[in-house]
Specification:
alpha/beta, TIM Barrel, eight-stranded mixed β-sheet, globular, disordered N terminus, metal-binding, dihydroorotase activity, zinc, Dihydroorotase
Length: about 450
């Protein structure tokens, strides 16, 4: 596993904190001691506890101290498209948004389909990134959907999961073989469930609004049919399977049924599909051209409800930086994607403030559950766990200015949005990597 290199740091004592542990669901006042990059002691219901004489004391002032987020789906340009994003800029955006672990997708140039490229990414992240970076390797060679990659060698090199990123494996026989192979290695398959033939030339959710805007639509069935096929293959193979992003009520029902059958199935949802709907596209706003597309408000409410009930396991940023040349185009011609590492938590807090989900529930979907799926020790407040922590004011209001984002690309769907909740400090292995008070 990759983590930023740290020098010996002074112990840290966090006092007067509102501790939130998503792994246990516990939330209470308390204090915490961090030593040697790990949590050394937690004092629940005891806001002040003295630490070693040499310790640095951080008075949290009653604000939330929680595990850093684990984002299972982020596209980073490096290698090959550093003009869009680098590991350095992505990690800075992540730290500002409270994300301390990032799983980067294999859609790079070259594609992450060889152990040497996994090794390159880990070494590059070690040298330039300020948060934990874990590569996901390609499911098929060249992301072409025809020939499986060498799962065993890629896992040995450090790949934490297998996916073709924004592409779906349309060949059912190839997908069956990949699932069988993954089962034998204990590997996790992350799949983008969208039939490209049904998507066709579609650019937004199919329906009345698309017709009124004069834009070709993407039917929900493009997602539903691919997901249903995959679930049948999971029944056949018994492999661990994660639907990367679901976006509609029927997909939720399919996942819920599969879980009731005891299948080893999990799923995620993009923060965009949780908090925005198709009407937000407004006057052809290309920053909201996404895959899967923003759906109807009814579908959005269905995925919010599924998240609250635990049917949807994780929330992802689906961070996908695009430069102005690919976004400053007519809507139908613009590239899919939006940046999201820096805004995922603030946007998700909309659901907390609206009463749809508890704060611990949101952190479970953004930290402890993704960490557990990936086999990482992060995402929890426990003695011995990595001191990947964030100090959060969940109520601080602000208006997002895309010019202030740390990402190299600025294609955020939340530009000029009113948000509540800011990450004030971020720590990775006990080392401070973000402090809003020091921002210029």
């Amino acid at each position: 596993m990759n983590s930023p290199t740290t020098s010996e740091a002074r112990p840290l004592v966090f006092t007067n904190a509102r501790l939130v542990d998503p792994a246990s669901g516990r939330e209470a006042p308390g204090a915490m001691l961090v030593q040697n990059g790990a949590i050394a002691d937690i004092a629940w219901d005891e806001p002040v506890r003295p630490g070693p004489a040499e310790a640095e004391v951080v008075d949290c002032g009653g604000l939330v101290l929680a595990p850093g987020l684990v984002d299972m789906r982020a596209f980073v340009g490096e290698p090959g498209a550093e003009h869009r994003e680098t590991l350095k800029t992505a990690s800075e955006a992540a730290a500002a948004g409270g994300v301390t672990t990032v799983v980067c997708m294999p859609d790079t140039d070259p594609v992450v389909d060889e152990p040497s490229i996994v090794d390159f990414l880990l070494r590059r992240a070690r040298d330039t990134a300020i948060v934990n970076i874990h590569p996901a390797a390609a499911l098929t060679k060249g992301l072409e959907g025809r020939e499986m990659t060498e799962f065993g060698l890629l896992m040995e090199a450090g790949a934490v999961a297998f996916t073709d990123g924004a592409r779906s494996v349309t060949n059912a026989q190839v997908m069956r073989r990949a699932l069988t192979y993954a089962r034998d290695f204990g590997a996790l398959i992350l799949h983008h469930t969208e039939d490209p033939d049904l998507v066709g030339s579609g650019v937004m959710n199919e329906g009345e609004l698309a017709t009124r805007l004069g834009l070709p639509g993407v039917p929900r069935e493009a997602e539903i049919i691919m997901l249903e096929r995959d679930l049948r293959l999971v029944r056949l193979t018994g492999a661990r399977y994660h639907a990367a992003m679901v976006s509609c009520a029927t997909s939720v029902a399919l996942i819920e049924r599969a879980k009731a059958e005891g299948l080893p199935v999990t799923c995620g949802v993009s923060i965009n599909n949780l908090t925005l709907n198709e009407t937000d596209i407004g006057d052809y706003r290309t920053f909201l051209k996404l895959s899967p597309p923003l759906r109807s408000e009814e579908d959005r409410l269905a995925v919010v409800d599924a998240l609250a009930r635990g049917v949807i396991d994780v929330v992802v940023s689906d961070h996908n930086p695009q430069d102005v040349e690919t976004k400053r185009l007519p809507f139908a011609e613009a590239a899919d994607g939006a940046v999201g590492l820096e805004t995922m938590l603030s946007a998700g807090l909309r659901l907390v403030h609206a009463g749809h989900i508890s704060l611990a529930g949101l952190f479970a979907a953004m930290a402890s559950r993704p960490a557990a799926l990936l086999g990482l020790p992060a995402g929890r407040l426990a003695v011995g766990a990595p001191a990947d922590l964030i100090l959060l004011d969940p109520d601080e209001p602000y208006v997002l200015d895309k010019a202030n984002l740390h990402s190299r690309s600025k294609n955020t769907p939340f530009d000029e949005a009113r948000l509540e909740g800011r990450v004030l400090k971020t720590f990775v292995a006990g080392r401070k990597v973000h402090d809003i008070s020091l921002a210029s």
